[in-house]
Amino acid sequence: MKLSPRDTASYFRKPDPRKAGVLIFGTDALRVADKRQQIIPALVGPNAEEEMRISRISGADIRKDPAMLLDALKAISFFPGPRVAFVEEANDLSAPAILAALQDWSEGDAQLIVTAGNLKPTSKIRKAFEAHPNAYSAAIYDNPPTREEIERDLADAGLRNIDRDSLEHLTGLANELEPGDFRQTLTKLVIYKLNDETPLSHDDISACAPTSTEAALDDALNIVAEGRSEQLGPVLRKLQSQGVQPVGLCIGATRHFRTLHATTVNPASLYIKGPKGDQLRRQASKWGRIKLEDALQLLINTDLQLRSADQAPQMALMERALIRLAMMGRR
Question: How far is CA 189 from CA 42, 82, 150, 196, 261, in A?
């Protein structure tokens, strides 16, 4: 059975232990891993690893020894309690063992949790879980958690005194950080506010948020692509303070503009969903293919200058190139 994005959020917080299992797949390995880290403790409790109630198997291992997975499902632990057989990095080469285990599953066996990359609708594993009456298939998209999901996660952890502004701050942070970093930030916030009844503030969030992230680089590239050159200076200073080198900044800018160019040529090539994907589509539409090719040529020339023996200040050279790009984007 398929889980919709909304049902996925609620099910992973409170999964049904009587089900045969769940397939978790998506393009972003970090988001897939984050969901897996959420559902397994919800199924078996926090001490299952120490009590040997989790069997961890790679997709490559069950290709070599298909019986390994079935043995893990049927094995009995020394400790009482529910069990999980977890298969990571599965693909259709692992399908025979996974499909056999799913078909042979019976009540009392370990629950089968399978993680995979981006599986096509024709994938044997995906089709098997979607068609199974007692198992779920959950596609994990690149969308960050919503404000409601953040508020619910904090409430479940005991942090309920949150005003509207702080929730907006956290929602913005969720759009900037990788899933694992954001979940770690929420965990820090809960500990930071332990026995503190005052409302969650911006200072509390700033004290717990990572000090160095990819967010500043994304901010800089979006500022350039949207022609907001007057906002570029402070973001570049922040990147410098985080140790980002001009060559790395040039590589990031080239990757961003290549994504925009590919989107103008073939809109279906942009697999990023949600607000971030919408933003990239708007940028690609605004620039158009011809101007994006000019932008890429400018970045290639800048990259060659940065890697040459020229002693000109490299960050100044890169900043000048980004300002020129931002001005191009306005025309």
Answer: 21, 30, 12, 11, 40
**Of 88, 106, 139, which residue sits at a domain end?**
139
When mean pLDDT is compared over 157-171, 250-264, 271-285, the highest value belongs to 250-264
Which run of H or E residues covers position 60?
A: helix 59-64
Q: Are residues 76 and 41 in the same domain?
A: yes
C-alpha closest to that of 140 among 60, 56, 37: 37
**Residue ranges making up the domain that contains 98:** 2-139
Residues 21 and 135 in one domain: yes
Same domain, 250 and 204: no
Distance CA 19, CA 186 (A): 29
Does the predicted TM-score (pTM) go above 0.90? no
DSSP secondary structure string, 229-248? Answer: GGGHHHHHHHHHHTT--HHH
Q: What is the pLDDT of residues 116-143, one digit of tens each?
A: 998 999 999 999 999 999 999 999 887 7
Residue 311 pLDDT more than 70?
no
